[in-house]
């Protein structure tokens, strides 16, 4: 049985679907509330590096916080450090769920991607 850390928002239906999928696949999960306990800038740096994705893929571009902060226009002008700082301060800015086993990382929930990454 593998142990996964899932940064999620309990009220988010996508997160609930992902958690259900992972449990059914036989994973032991450590759930972390992304709004109450967002990952630190340092944790995010590791997550981004391990995901192989661009940092901008970690932003929840359809969320209220993203819109309220006007990030559509600001984001391209922010340094990586500033972006990591924003994400670590506003957990709801992070596209969710973020799942990691300490090496691999997935962002969001697509069953196909989960099958590739998290099937046992």
Automatic annotation (TrEMBL):
InterPro entries: Arsenate_reductase-like, Thioredoxin-like_sf, Tscrpt_reg_Spx/MgsR. SUPFAM superfamilies: Thioredoxin-like (SSF52833). Coiled coil: none annotated. It comes from the Bacteria. Gene3D superfamilies: Glutaredoxin (3.40.30.10). It holds the Pfam family ArsC. PANTHER family: ARSENATE REDUCTASE (PTHR30041), PROTEIN YFFB (PTHR30041:SF8). Belongs to the ArsC family. This is Arsenate reductase. It comes from Paenibacillus graminis.
